[in-house]
Amino acid sequence: MKRLYFLIPFICLLACAAAFAQTDTLRYVVRGTVRDAAGGKPLAYVHVTLPGTNYATVTNQDGTFVIKSAAAPRAASFSLLGYKVLTMPADRERTMQVLLSRGEFTLDPAQVITGEPLALLREAIYKIPENCPDEPELFDCFYRETAQKRQRFIYVSEAVTRMYKSSFRTAFGRDRTAVEKSRLLTSPRRSDTLAVKVIGGPTQAVDLDLVKHRALFLNDADLEDYVLELMEPVMIDDRRQIVIRLTPTYVSEYAQQHGLIYIDQETMSFTRIEASLDMSDPVKATRVMLIRKPADIRFKPKEMSLLLNYKREGDKSRLSYVRTVFRFNCDARRRLWNTEFTAIAEMVVTNRHAGAEAVPIDRTESFRSSDALADKTREYTDPDFWKDYNIIEPTESLEHALGRLRKE
Q1: Which side of the chain, N or C, has fewer Cβ within a 10 Å radius?
Q2: Which residues of 313-333 are buried (b: 16+ CB within 10 A; e: fewer)?
Q3: CA 89 to chain CA centroid, nearest Å
Q4: How confident is the model at residue 9 (pLDDT cuts 50, 70, 90)?
Q5: When comparing pLDDT for 243 and 400, which is higher?
Q6: Cα 100 to chain center, whole Å?
Q7: Where are the alpha helices (DSSP H) in 263-385?
């Protein structure tokens, strides 16, 4: 069985940057907070768009967002798994307070989802060329990776990237990523330096697109290694979703994945994919997660997970958001305690270009999966660093951590 490698950010990150001029000035700004209408809790990972444009972002853990546009936006739209899509007038004068309501889910007898889950999944795979773009496209993206030692942030890196995607009808494309602008902040404490390395970075938007690169997961050879179970349907973007759970069927020599796959019932396009590495055998999990480490460091895997969201625009579905979580404990053999580390990377597509604007990324400026952002990035000194770009707003905890790291 092929192994699915999640490309997670380094803790000792190792990258190249490519210069790129932003053509549009994003001078109109909309800010707000999204909460659950019933309980009032902040909602994270809400997809925020400006209808009539390709601009997009997601809310942070505090439910806050900021989205910018080259033209004055008239409305803003909000969507999240299990909630009703909400579109409301965009308010540029004050912070918007957005309340999302849970989606009411009803199925009449004529709409009951039936069929073998494997047959449904194979139909969705068969329809990928029909449901996904048949022309090359270029995307603007925002990427952030953080590392925490216990609850304390020790590393933050951010970048605006370009992502080129060839047609889904092309067997061999030139899918690549390039970094336009980036910055980082690291802890100066020697005790926070950890020489444990895993692969990853901004290329995960290309490398982890499981719908585009089906050899990694969605292929007949690998699907035979899983039990597929049809779960209760859910709503995403006010559309019914088929939900299929994947569970490994046997004990393999490699650590396998547990997953949930969401498929639009009407179009049979992929909407969401969740996968997590089986941690029941730490030795197998370590083989997948770790590249190298010092001999005196003991590595204890805790979590390796992936979330992919796909957004449907018109008659095509595209990758809109990626998040990876990599969690482990490390200790030196001479010590009696161990320390938990967590690395999180997330990428959101903030704009899309098609036709003549979809210019391929040259190999010389392409970011490689073996690269990292830490080599050629700028420090957190310019308050207007992201002025002309859409980003994911930092959470209050991250803002506080940045302040502490600057003082250190």
Answers
A1: C
A2: eeebbbbbbbbbbbbbebeee
A3: 27
A4: very low
A5: 243
A6: 22
A7: 282-289
Overall pTM > 0.70: yes
CB atoms within 10 A of CB 379: 11
**SS3 category, 222:** helix
Q: How far apart are CA 319 and CA 206, in angstroms?
A: 10
Q: What is the pLDDT of residues 167-213, one digit of tens each?
A: 887 766 689 999 988 888 887 776 666 555 555 578 887 888 999 88
What is the 8-class DSSP label of residue 194? -
> What token pair was written down for 32?
């707000």
Q: Is 115 left (phi over 0), alpha (psi -120 to 50) or beta?
A: left
Q: Count of CB atoms within 10 A of residue 206's CB? A: 23
Run of H or E residues at 300: strand 297-313
In sequence order, the 6+-apart residues with CB closer than 8 A to the CB of 21 are none
- Percentage of the chain with pLDDT > 90? 52
What tokens appear for 26 in the block?
Answer: 């994003």
Q: How is 220-263 classified by DSSP, letter by letter?
A: HHHHTTEEEEE---EEETTEEEEEEEEEE-S--SS--EEEEEEE
- Cα separation, 216 vs 28, in Å, equals 40
Q: If residue 362 lies in a helix (H) or strand (E), which one and from where to where? A: none
The two tokens of residue 340 are 């938990």
Determine whether 84 is exposed, middle or buried from the number of CB atoms within 10 Å of its CB (0-12, 13-18, 19+).
middle
pLDDT in tens, 220-249: 777 888 899 999 999 999 999 999 999 988
Of all helices (H) and strands (E), which one includes residue 189? none
Its sign, for the CA torsion 389, 375, 366, 303, is negative
Per DSSP, the residues of 96-132 read EEEEEPBPP----GGG---S-HHHHHHHHHHTHHHHS
- Measured in whole angstroms, the distance separating CA 201 from the mean position of its chain's CA atoms is 11
Tokens 């907070």 sit on residue: 33
Domains located in the chain, CATH noted: 28-100 (2.60.40.1120), 114-407 (no CATH)
- The residue type at 74: R
